[in-house]
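Tutorial sheet, problem 5. The two components below are modelled jointly, 798 residues in total.
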Amino acid sequence: MNFDFSDDQKLLRDQARKFLTDKCDRSTVRTVLEDNSNYYSNDLWKSISEMGWTGTAIPEEYGGLGLGMLELCIIAEELGRSLAPTPFSSSIYLFAEFIKLYGNEEQKTKILPLIASGEKIGTFALSETNGTPKPSNISTEENGLKLTGTKSPVSDGQSADYIIVAANSDSNKDPNSLSLYIIDKSQEGVEISELETIDPTRPACTINLKAADCEMLGEKGNGWNMIENIFNRAAVLFSFEQVGGAQVSLDEAKKYSLERFAFGRPIGSFQSLKHRMADMYVKIELARSNAYYGAWALSTDSAELPVAAAGARVSASDAFNYSSQENIQIHGGVGFTWEYDCHLFYRRSKLLSLNIGSQRQWKENLISNLEKRNILQ
Amino acid sequence: MDFNDTSKEAEFRQRVRDFLDQNAEKRVNSKQAEVSSAGAPETVQGGAEAAKIALNNAKEWQKKKAEAGFAAILWPKEFGGYGGTPIEQVIYQQEEHNYFVHSGYFEIGIGMLGPTMMVWGKDEDKKRYLPKMITGEEIWCQLFSEPSAGSDLAGIRMKAEKDGDEWVLNGQKVWTSGAHFADYGMVVARSDPSALKHKGLTYFFLDMKTPGVEAKPIKQISGSANFNEVFFNDVRIPDSQRLGAEGDGWKVALTTLMNERLAVGDPPGLDFDQIFEATKEIEVEDGLAIKNSEVRQKMAEWYVQSRGLQYTKYRSMTALSKGQTPGPELSISKLVTASKMQEVSSYALDLMDMAGYVHHDKNPVMRNLFQNGYFFSAAMRIAGGTDEVLRNIIAERVLGLPQDERPDKKVPFNELPSGKN
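Model answer (structure tokens):
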């Protein structure tokens, strides 16, 4: 049994943590939060790109470091701990993985090195309406490699240079006909309108496509399968990011409860608070273990991935949502002030748990994948 | 990252499997639902005669294990143990769980009381008692809890008064697993009520047939009786059966408690898998339960708890395999398992609607499984450390939060307020 990261991977974690403590303190996060002209921290993005993190899981032949998905999991956890205000998840967990897995040789050669170096940013545009995106409510259409439709919200769309768009390749809404297209944002047919989000350090926008030029990604009509697979992969990475954020929420709750005195004692000595923090710990440990299993499935291309990813995602969303919410509660009055940092985690936890599909949706995914697995066995 | 044994572990596992295959009956389905009794000797249906037969079978099995060297994996060889490592202990438990055998009768002795004697006993006692503990010839029980000393274990009131070379014990113990069939017991009593709470205790072992010892089974809400009350009336124990110094009883008791068996190999009990199967059979208002959205949402929560615990055990096993002490992960196991079982069983009965409250119908096995779980889980949230005590342990030992105010640590035991009960 060796259900743990290797010594080298742990070393990478230590280095990443040290690096982010230095380069991504809370003022870095707040600058992006409070200044509407910043979609992300340029300096931080530059620094982490120079470290090669953006190319962690991109093969060396396409300009990456050629490490594996386990290393990317480690980076994700550290980005979550530090609340890094960057488009990393959109560009790396989603866009780069789409290109890496489904791009043709020309697309990989042209695009991946730019993504690996951090020079260009990519994202993925799926949702069009309130509620759960599915092939039947996608109305963006492609005709003669021209895309028309509206995507909203598109995470990090303002910052992106390239966008992968899910669309129907004709007017037929048969789920099998959903396809994926890559667009270059710098063209006339692409219009951006700003959206406000619950966590401005993770911005989003609406994208209007009016006969925008595009090229196809992967096999025509195979869009939904590709999306499911990439979302499963990203779910594992998101779960590490969430576990990181949850752990810091607990650490900060604990720290405050030891410093704050009431009734002549540190409030952390009251059982009602101790038990709350014990519950945070339990959820975080369960989430961490589920995330590890997801990491294993991801790194070994296991057939378990759909179940493992959904399990990691559900558990991690629960842990981070709960921990960030109870962190505010433990802080009392100051917990809901702008000045204290509790809200940074509260915002981020909710945004992360919605970004690639809601908790409700992932629970449903989990059970339906268990049913499928059951039938196969 | 992988789930494979090291070559040494694989070799050990194979030897265990060979032994089990030759000597025991394998379960057809290892996932077979079982409502385990959390460390207490197995519940035996069918009255006193059946209980006697079950005990004899268990003793025969224990003897075979001892002969093969597998009865006490962690004990040193000089006392008849295997001299093995914690990971080997876990591997043995995992494998044995796949067979119809009963080791519960001996777990408290081998897991907790034997190691206490190794640390605190005299050489002649170790030679006399430890070998028969391993072979199952003599069964031991642990007499710690009392009516007013449960979560607050050091609140023990059983009197121990010195009379020449003997001690006279008077009082009552409770929640004693196996006291009705145990041959020996280890007992903590208060030898000095005027000392501080943790300083006035002394630790002994005794023959359960000593005059004045009387065990009475406690019927639980599940209907079974895994535990006893044990009454001590002028029970005389020679001073030679004291373990540790007079007044050091708490220190000795901590040795016992530190050896709580590793929870790593525990059977899962009633869990996600059982309700997942059940929902494929139960009809609710809009069809099969498994197709109902609310049911699916609930099941997803139980699944991630269940597998989260399983993978947490893998992390602990990894630490053991590398010769490290597992992290605090294990402390969460019972806390999560017990509440999950209560929720799962209660929800499953609710799905069955009006039929959920009666025994025996067209699917008695499934129904009784959840009904048993409904009662058993209520006990499981309390036995072996209540949910509240476990949360305190996590908060204090893992997170490093301060202990609650402890007025009981500052005044002599006999001056502490004791309340009505």
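Marking note: The radius of gyration of chain A is 21 Å. Full credit if you identified this.
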